[in-house]
């Protein structure tokens, strides 16, 4: 069914590009389903009539060819088509002509949809191996009329060989039948592989097969069609199947050299020869990552920012020394030179597929060579850019340079050796320009924009290519721009430019030259955004050039230059404006510290206005300057208050105190997030005399903003939490002091309560777990405040406060993000090991010191070290709940290393308490408590279900399974039933796995678990129905005491054949209920009021 037809006219330019009308037909589905079913159903009647069968085959071919560009539309129908045809094939009554005709239809479908997808639909059970192998053995390999049958049978046999059983188990007893012994299954498969054109899919071992392959390569004649097919298959098997495990690579290489495949007339043979030679070359070289390759930089932004110049220098020197030492001890075999020579010859081949394969081989082999030898290879590639060479050699050289650049093997020193000068756009051949575009993609992605000598010529290359005379080159240029935009993101207004000059827009030459040219206005805005990256260069070089062009003769150039002058000038003004903020704030700080006699001078009001205005307009500053401006503001405000806002020593000017405190408290309610941040930091930097008698007011407002979790104010909450600790530190601690002036027994619980509440901030947005910023600040503030109180008035620290704090830290130290786990663990140990002052009332202090002695050197960032210590806290009743809560998100997470080590530590602990019934029951109660508290919290309940599934699979509650209807299982089942109403696929899938694990418990609870699984078998989501059936199948295989053995086969068959249609599933489900002895669920009628 055609949904739309569009016509797109493309007028050609020079170079022979002609006008064309392109008709595009978009299909909406497989509309010939009924006709296809009728054709297949008629095969038994028409197979004997050659004319009718050919007519039906041609009609089927026409139908299938319509879906060459949209083969996915066939997917919903492939299964029933395959089943219809296989019914004829499997029937013993089907004559050979019907079987061959059926396989011919299957081949047509396979050709359209692709064999990799289609072959997965073939039945591949154990029972299919022998029939398929027998049918394939009966085929005549010399019959050219039935090759489709052999091809499809080979694909089918390759799928059956993937069964998870050793094939020798299918041999049974190999006693002789009569006078002829039976041949093992594996030998039969190899025998078929050696005489089949498509044997590559069936090769599994390389012992005798290698000798046969080399003999075949030597004896075949590449002028015979059959020999070409056999040689093609042998080369593919050698290339794709375990090349690294070849016993004698030099022997194979010598065989290929004698064969002279590079002189063959068949492009595919030449390509396979190049591919096999490069794989052989890799076997001669040690697998290694070239330390001398170009390094764009660390993939960790934090590592890049924290690395000092000295560290960078030492890191740059050490690998070079190590590389030299490695290369001195590393001998390169002579065969590598032969391999490289063949690959360089392949770069000049007349076929693109051969050149491309050779280019990839050059990149792979060069990556394992020492620096000096690799540089010689690069030089040999550059030699191909000679006017004596053909266009094919130029194109192959471009592809090779692209591969070398993609792997970082083309060092920046080579970029200045004239690469771009040699690859000019003056070449008249389209294929060479296309190769240049491919090369440019990887060079622009891999190499930094700092390589000026290389970037500028490539920029000119891209700009010129957008207006190339050939449509394919223009489209290639558009694709390059799209890739660069996605990889580097260094193109302001890139989306707008790409929308205007997309793949289809540049296809029309008129549209390209007449309409897309307006993008120069966007280019001027791009210059505006690029100016902050290199302001000196823009002011001294770019702007004078623009001024020269602005007074030139060309109207279009003058238009773009004038717009660009305005944009660059505006950007320079903003840079100067931001610099002024830094400069003025720094000036205020230094003048205040210099104690200049400006007290009560009007200039102080001006300074205060600058600070306040900057806080109010922080959201207008560039993202890179905001943090620096905040630091400058805080430093300037603190210095100015200390010098000019004291009426007398230690006493604030009451008027300024009221004004500033009220103003910054009001700023905490601003709609601008950065204004809130600035106001919170300003309150935190006020000197002690400025918050005297205002502590309650300041703390309450900071408490207010830190507890507000709604809205996008995560950074404001973080800064408010920091401000609370700073204010408390400046106010001081006095057990019996005034709550409006110091931290005392009356307000300490409130302050701790706020900080502890922010430890549960798990806000997420597009940036991820941004609530972690708040939690990190809260942990730091709790440590600072606790050390302050413990040193001044430890008596006001109640046991409940210390317990809550230590438990929250234990939870954070057990969670999945390495950085915050390390931060929490470090603070936990510092509070535990602190002696001056000592923190009172830490629960289980002695046991904790046994687990974490003062001499402990623990890398909290490493999951392999951290979790084995954290899991020991599960044995301490006070810490068990919070530690297990933290471990839940780690064990049920997605990071492989975290999941592995956290689950291993958890299971080690559970293994140690298997004989302690009381401890195991206490652990189970804690587990149930966590689930009850987080039933509506997806952050916890989904990982919890995954963790619980692992526990059940590892028999962690085996002691409970010996008792019928154990209360733990009953309670757990009741809680898990709450998830049935969820619409979350991941939660429902995890719940199904837990139900299957609960089947190991004895008593009536087992019937209830089966009831829940059978209900999910009819869930409204097809994926849940399929998951439930699959999990129940595995469950019944694992726990053989669940069902009567007499009906086991029927149940397994029903589960494996369950249809996704809801009405059909209910019938199967009800039958399963009868077999399993479970009451059939009843449909509850909806009551309509």
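-> sequence recovered:
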């Amino acid at each position: 069914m055609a949904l739309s037809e569009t016509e797109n006219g493309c007028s050609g330019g020079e170079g022979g590009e002609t006008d064309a009308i392109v008709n595009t037909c978009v299909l909406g589905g497989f509309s010939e389903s009924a006709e296809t079913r009728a054709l297949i159903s008629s095969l038994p009647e028409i197979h004997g009539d050659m004319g009718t069968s050919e007519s039906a085959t041609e009609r089927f071919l026409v139908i299938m060819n319509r879906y060459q560009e949209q083969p996915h539309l066939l997917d919903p129908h492939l299964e029933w088509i395959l089943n219809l045809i296989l019914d004829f094939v499997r029937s013993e009554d089907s004559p050979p002509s019907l079987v061959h005709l059926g396989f011919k239809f299957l081949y047509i479908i396979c050709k359209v949809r692709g064999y990799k997808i289609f072959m997965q639909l073939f039945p591949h059970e154990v029972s299919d191996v022998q029939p398929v192998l027998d049918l394939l053995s009966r085929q005549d390999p010399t019959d050219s009329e039935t090759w489709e049958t052999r091809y499809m049978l080979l694909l089918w046999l390759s799928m059956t060989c993937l069964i998870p059983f050793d094939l020798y188990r299918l041999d049974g007893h190999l006693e002789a039948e009569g006078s002829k012994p039976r041949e093992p299954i594996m030998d039969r498969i190899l025998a078929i592989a050696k005489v089949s054109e498509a044997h590559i899919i069936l090769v599994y071992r390389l012992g005798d097969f290698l000798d046969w392959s080399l003999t075949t390569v030597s004896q075949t004649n590449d002028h015979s069609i059959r020999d070409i097919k056999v040689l093609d298959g042998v080369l593919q098997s050698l290339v794709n199947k375990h090349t690294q495990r070849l016993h004698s690579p030099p022997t194979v290489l010598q065989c290929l050299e004698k064969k002279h495949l590079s002189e063959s007339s068949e492009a595919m043979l030449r390509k396979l020869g190049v591919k096999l030679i490069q794989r052989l070359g890799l076997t001669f070289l040690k697998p290694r990552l070239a330390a001398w390759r170009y390094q764009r930089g660390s993939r960790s932004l934090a590592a890049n920012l924290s690395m000092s110049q000295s560290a960078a220098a030492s890191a740059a020197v050490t690998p070079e020394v190590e590389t030299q030492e490695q290369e001195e001890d590393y001998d390169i075999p002579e065969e590598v030179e032969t391999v490289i020579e063949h690959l360089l010859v392949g770069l000049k081949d007349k076929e693109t597929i051969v050149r491309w394969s050779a280019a990839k081989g050059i990149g792979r082999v060069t990556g394992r060579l020492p620096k000096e030898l690799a540089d010689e290879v690069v030089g040999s590639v550059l030699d191909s850019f000679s006017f004596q060479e053909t266009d094919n050699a130029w194109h192959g050289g471009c592809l090779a340079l692209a591969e070398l650049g993609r792997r970082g093997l083309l060092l920046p020193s080579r970029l200045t050796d004239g690469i771009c000068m040699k690859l000019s756009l003056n070449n008249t051949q389209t294929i060479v320009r296309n190769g240049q575009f491919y090369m440019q993609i990887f060079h622009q992605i891999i190499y930094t924009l700092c390589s000026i000598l290389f970037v500028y010529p490539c920029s000119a290359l891209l700009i010129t290519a957008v207006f190339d005379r050939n449509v394919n080159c223009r489209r290639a240029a558009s694709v390059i721009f799209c890739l660069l935009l996605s990889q580097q993101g260094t193109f302001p207004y890139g989306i707008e430019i790409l929308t205007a000059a997309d793949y289809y827009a540049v296809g029309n030459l008129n549209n390209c030259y007449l309409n897309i040219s307006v993008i120069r206005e966007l280019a001027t805005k791009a210059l505006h955004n690029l100016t902050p990256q290199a302001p000196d260069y823009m002011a001294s070089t770019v702007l004078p050039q623009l001024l020269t062009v602005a007074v030139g003769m060309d109207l279009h150039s003058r238009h773009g230059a004038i717009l660009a002058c305005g944009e660059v000038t505006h950007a320079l003004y903003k840079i100067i404006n931001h610099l002024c903020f830094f400069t003025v704030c720094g000036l205020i700080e230094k003048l205040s510290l210099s104690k200049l006699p400006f007290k009560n001078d009007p200039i102080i009001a001006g300074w205060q206005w600058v600070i306040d205005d900057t806080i109010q307009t922080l959201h207008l500053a560039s993202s890179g300057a905001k943090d620096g401006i905040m630091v400058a503001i805080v430093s300037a405000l603190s210095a100015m208050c200390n010098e000019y806002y004291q009426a007398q020593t230690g006493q604030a000017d009451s008027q300024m105190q009221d004004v500033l405190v009220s103003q910054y408290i009001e700023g905490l309610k601003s709609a601008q997030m950065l204004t809130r941040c600035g106001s919170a930091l300003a309150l935190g930097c006020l000197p002690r005399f400025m918050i005297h008698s205002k502590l309650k007011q300041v703390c309450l407002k900071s408490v207010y903003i830190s507890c507000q979790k709604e809205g996008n104010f995560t950074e404001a909450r973080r800064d408010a939490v920091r401000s609370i600790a700073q204010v408390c530190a400046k106010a001081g601690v006095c057990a019996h002091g005034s709550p409006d002036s110091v931290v005392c027994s009356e307000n300490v619980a409130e302050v701790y309560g706020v900080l502890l509440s922010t430890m549960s901030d798990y806000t997420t947005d597009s940036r991820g777990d941004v609530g972690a910023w708040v939690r990190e600040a809260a942990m730091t503030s709790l440590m600072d405040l606790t050390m302050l109180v413990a040193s001044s008035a430890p008596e006001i620290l109640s046991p409940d406060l210390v317990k809550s704090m230590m438990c929250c830290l234990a939870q954070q130290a057990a969670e999945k993000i390495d950085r915050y786990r390390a931060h929490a663990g470090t603070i936990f140990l510092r509070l535990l090991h602190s002696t001056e002052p000592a923190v009172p009332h830490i629960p289980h202090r002695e046991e904790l010191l046994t687990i974490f002695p003062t001499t402990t050197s623990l890398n909290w960032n490493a999951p392999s070290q951290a979790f084995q210590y954290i899991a020991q806290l599960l044995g301490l009743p006070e810490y068990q709940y919070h530690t297990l809560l933290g471990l839940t998100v780690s064990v049920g997470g997605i990071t492989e290393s975290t999941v592995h080590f956290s689950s291993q530590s958890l299971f080690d602990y559970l293994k140690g308490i298997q004989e302690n019934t009381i401890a195991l029951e206490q652990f189970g109660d804690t587990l149930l408590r966590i689930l009850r508290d987080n039933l509506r919290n997806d952050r916890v309940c989904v990982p919890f279900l995954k963790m619980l599934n692992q526990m059940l699979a590892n028999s962690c509650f085996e002691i409970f399974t010996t008792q019928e209807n154990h209360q733990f299982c009953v309670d757990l089942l009741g809680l898990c039933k709450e998830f049935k109403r969820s619409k979350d696929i991941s939660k429902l899938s995890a719940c199904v796995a837990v139900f299957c694990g609960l089947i190991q418990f004895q008593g009536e609870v087992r019937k209830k678990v089966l009831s829940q699984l059978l209900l999910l078998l009819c869930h409204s989501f097809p994926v849940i129905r399929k998951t439930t059936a699959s999990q129940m199948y595995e469950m019944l295989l694992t726990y053989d005491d669940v069902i009567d053995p007499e009906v086991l086969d029927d149940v397994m068959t029903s589960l494996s054949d369950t249809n996704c249609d809801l009405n059909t599933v209910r019938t199967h489900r009800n039958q399963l209920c009868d077999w399993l002895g479970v009451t059939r669920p009843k449909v509850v009628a909806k009551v309509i009021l």
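Strands lie at 2-10, 20-27, 176-177, 180-181, 646-648, 651-652.
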